[in-house]
Design brief:
Elements: H1 4-21, E1 28-29, H2 30-39, H3 46-58, E2 64-66, E3 72-74, H4 82-94, H5 100-112, H6 116-124, H7 139-152, E4 154-163, E5 169-171, E6 178-188, E7 191-198, E8 203-208, E9 212-222, H8 234-240, E10 248-257, H9 261-268, E11 274-276, E12 281-290, H10 292-300, E13 305-309, H11 311-329
Antiparallel strand pairs: 1-3, 2-3, 4-5, 4-6, 4-9, 6-7, 7-8, 10-12, 10-13, 11-12
Helix pairs in contact: 4-5, 5-6, 10-11
Length: about 325
């Protein structure tokens, strides 16, 4: 008579086998299951296999049986549908902050959620995005420390670097640590950012996680509360910033052509109030953080978008355009 532990191991292997190697298009018959179990050193016969699968079904592990002379079994209950998994795989391929080696590991793990047969099909159908992949293999460690610090409500310290023309790291602040209050991680423009509060500058700031090094949690330094009267919403913040560059927060009034309505909804959200403003023109207001990237975004639409107020922002746009004009009028370069 089989020991209780052997029975449990056998049922576990049956479940793993059917999850990994079967689906509605690729059932596995009784003879094949018994042969594969034998290869694992597990003794089983037809009657006990039938009973084991019945017990698994009774416990909520759904295994479908197609009745025939040699019964066929398969599992169709997956945590994700194939289109969902395909979206995840494409996102991994397109994410520049994930290194090439980590991308391969992640793709294998995500594809395995579909079972081995469909997983291989998914991997074969992945589009090569020609994305420039990051080379900082420590990014996983940095993300883990950031998430754990947010969970524990503790400050973090880290080094931050840029690259020189030879792709050597050049650390900012002469190699001294930054100390910040982590709030959230955000994916934007193919990069992964830490959103945090800086006690020294008393502002919300962003740091590219792939440019962070030697991230550590400071267990004796709890996250500082925001100054009185100041609140933070990651969704609101994401709508205000452009290219993850922060600046002074201002309510700006825009006048746009009709064809830019979709652009406005995509950037500022579908609840943005847009009102008719003359012939084929529309007006809306939005809270933005004025930065060089914001100025570039405004100018990119030419005559189809115009900032009408406040005057300080209008002046900034005019100064930005004048600076560009002078740059292209420079001779002898």
């Amino acid at each position: 008579m089989e020991s209780q532990n052997n029975v449990r191991i056998k049922m576990l292997k049956i479940w793993e086998l059917l999850c990994q190697e079967t689906d509605e298009d690729h059932p596995m018959d009784t003879i094949t299951i018994l042969a594969k179990l034998k290869e694992m050193g597990i003794v089983c016969d037809r009657r006990t296999l039938y009973n084991d699968i019945k017990i698994l079904n009774d416990c909520g592990y759904e295994i479908i049986c197609r009745r025939s002379r040699n019964n066929e079994y398969f599992v169709i209950d997956r945590s994700f549908d194939l289109p969902e998994l395909h979206i995840l795989l494409d996102a991994i391929q397109a994410a520049g902050f994930i290194t090439k080696s980590k991308s391969k590991v992640l793709i294998d793990k995500v594809a395995s959620l579909a079972g081995s047969r469909k997983g291989e099909v998914l991997k074969r159908n992945i589009v090569a995005f020609n994305t420039t992949k990051n080379t900082n293999e420590a990014i996983y460690y940095s993300i883990n420390e950031i998430i754990e610090a947010i969970k524990q409500q503790k400050k973090i310290a880290f080094l931050y670097f840029d690259y020189d023309h030879k792709h050597n790291r050049v650390y900012r602040k002469d190699g001294h640590h930054y100390v910040v209050n982590p709030f959230a991680t955000v994916f934007s423009n193919d990069n992964y950012y830490l959103v945090c509060y800086n006690d020294v500058h008393r502002t919300i700031t962003h740091y590219r996680i792939d440019r962070m090094d030697k991230v550590i949690i400071l267990p004796d330094k709890p996250i500082s509360p925001l100054p009185e009267g100041q609140t933070f919403s990651i969704s609101r913040h994401k709508k205000q910033v452009f290219g993850m560059y922060t600046g002074n927060e201002v309510e700006v009034t825009f006048v746009i052509d009709k064809e830019l309505i979709d652009v406005v909804f995509e950037k500022f959200g579908e609840k943005t109030k847009i009102m008719p403003y003359g012939d084929d023109k529309y007006l809306f207001k939005a809270e933005v953080q004025v930065s060089p990237v914001f100025l570039g975004w405004v100018c990119a639409f030419g005559k189809r978008l115009k900032v009408t107020s406040p005057q300080s922002v209008v002046d900034s746009i005019q100064a930005h355009l004048e600076e560009l004009r002078q740059n292209y009028e420079t001779k002898g370069e």
